[in-house]
Amino acid sequence: MLPENEGQETEREGSGGSESVEKRLPRRIQVRQVTAYQASWTERGRGESGVFTLQLILDHGADEHVLEVDEDDMDVLLKLLKRSEHTTYDLERGVLMFSNLDA
Hints:
By secondary structure, this protein is mainly β. The chain has a domain at 31-99. It has 1 helix and 7 strands. It has a 5-stranded antiparallel β-sheet, covered by helices on one side. A two-stranded antiparallel sheet has the order 1-2. 7% of the residues are buried.
């Protein structure tokens, strides 16, 4: 059986001592698994450069994030996504992490 406050952060309010009141807040998940992705190129306007975007589907649709990348980065990211057995995305820091890549 799990402790009552498992998976929760504790925040203390007040000036301390016996007058402190604990307020329990649910912990927000900041890192999510990339379960699907969609690469696309969008035309900006006639005669203008287009833009590449990479849409990350996180935890089977629980969240999503769109990265705007240049052509060189898109090529590398797609190769890493294909090779990675487990890819995660840190929402707070904006970091894409690839796991189990062969050296």
